[in-house]
Amino acid sequence: MGKLEITKNDLKKRFAEYNDLYFQNKLKMPLFKFIMAKKPYGSCHVDKKRCEIWISKYVKWTDETLKNVLIHEMIHQYVYEVLHGCKYTLFPHGIRFYYVRWRLNNKYDLGIDKIPI
Ligand SMILES: [Zn+2]
What spacing in Å lies between the alpha carbon of 70 and ligand 1's midpoint? Predict the structure, then answer.
């Protein structure tokens, strides 16, 4: 798989697809921003007013790795918006995050956080 040049539109399309496939369309469309560095690969900033998902512009994304990272960030959003979890900035990967990730990996064989980027 070659390097993907990603646009915000691609991210929106993927988000809508994964929201439908894995999150029962429970997530609100976030605002997408690009991180102008290789790391972090992605981050999620969510509170009561808005959700922003930031994705690195400088990673050599493949279809698989971009899917992996975007779903990881969507799990943060799901934990906050649907499970009323702790704010991302306080507990980035709490018990609810691990539970949802385990459930998705188990049910759909997604390998979230298991593939090298
Ligand atoms: Zn995370």
Answer: 10
